[in-house]
Here is the input.
Amino acid sequence: MTPQIPFKRNAVEPTQCIKDGWAMVKDQYWLFVGMSLVGMLIGSAVPMGILMGPMMCGLYLAFFKRRRGEPIEFGTLFKGFDYFGPSVIATLLHMVPIIAIAIPAYFLFYVSLLLSMATQTATDEPSAAPMLGVFVMFGIFYIVFLVIVIIISVGFTFSYPLITDRKMQGFDAVKLSFKAAMANFWRILGMMMLSMLLNIAGVLLCYVGVFLVIPISYAAIAAAYEQVFGLHDPKEVISNLPPPPPVFE
Here is the structure.
């Protein structure tokens, strides 16, 4: 039985999250840049992002240690493998629905495109209407798909922080993350938009700048998590066991 963890609604302050994220990493900025870069490289080395979960957990573990005033080192990143099972489950729950929608969609798009080209080749008077219709339909689907991806991504915002800070199992962390994220949806989306602007600024700096702002973006999520859930006291023992039965005298 998973313990009930309260969360706050409409608690995320997008601008403050970015500011708190910068304050969290600035004293050890280059360490966090290195950890983020290595984490992304390792996380991308295996298909389906299997290793991305442990890397993200290691990064959030470092953020939370900073907030508690505890020392961190580069090796803290690899302590994310202590949460390997739950983080992989959370990653798969994130990736599989998106892939399940994207692959059939692209398959149908290319099949429709080939059929429209074959139809035009077979007719004496070719028309651009069939092919235009395919692109219009795909454009509409792409917009719908993008909205779905945004909703899913917002819903998963707190999954890795919950696994790291509250020692939750993957499915439970995802479920609670969705509840808390939907209760802060527009504010989290605003924070993501601010992070995206930082990333765009990084791209303008010959793309290398992206790696310089990524730690701030992730730290902003850690700050948002603290605004919504509060940071767990490590001295408090977290138990997933059900409460003991009542004692009758």
Observations:
- Confidence is low (pLDDT under 50) at residues 237-243.
- The radius of gyration is 22 Å.
- The longest helix spans residues 84-122.
